[in-house]
Amino acid sequence: MPTGEHIGTYKEFWPYYLQQHSSPRTRAIHYLGTGLALLSILALIATFNPWFLLLALVAGYAPAWIGHFFIEKNRPATFTYPLWSLFSDFRMAWDWLFGTLPKELEKAGVLPR
């Protein structure tokens, strides 16, 4: 996807998202952030302590943005496509957990490293 080109559908976005997460290290740091965010949301539900919402946001986004800025050296898609990016973080983690991510990466043109 060329820089500056608008993505109109989620079907177009998903391969772009995977291409922006081509490094296994970037994906790993995203899984960490997604897991910590989920745990924080569960803690929020269990305790009704609103600080866990702030923790979920920081724990979810900080590792991901570190991965983008220092590993991939690209701009997080969250800045342009926040909802699709959030959904894709969970989709990527789900695909990784259940072993379907390699096929998705291959379809998106992401070569194994």
Explain the overall architecture.
The protein has 113 residues and is mainly alpha-helical. It has a domain of 77 residues. It has 5 helices and no strands. α2 packs across α4. The longest helix has 24 residues. The protein is globular and about 45 Å long. The mean pLDDT is 95.
Structural class: mainly alpha
**Residue share in β-strands:** under 5%
Radius of gyration, whole Å? 14 Å
Q: What integer is the average pLDDT? A: 95
Distance between the termini: 21 Å
Biggest beta sheet attributes: none
Quaternary structure annotation? single chain
DSSP helix fraction: 55-70%
Number of beta-strand segments: 0
Judging from the principal axes of the Cα atoms, what is the shape? Answer: globular
Q: Order of helices and strands, N to C?
A: HHHHH
Topology:
Layout: H1 10-19, H2 24-47, H3 51-72, H4 82-97, H5 101-107
Helix pairs in contact: 1-4, 2-3, 2-4
Concise overview:
This protein has 113 residues and is mainly α. It is 70% helix and 0% strand.
Comma- or semicolon-separated keywords:
113 residues; mainly alpha
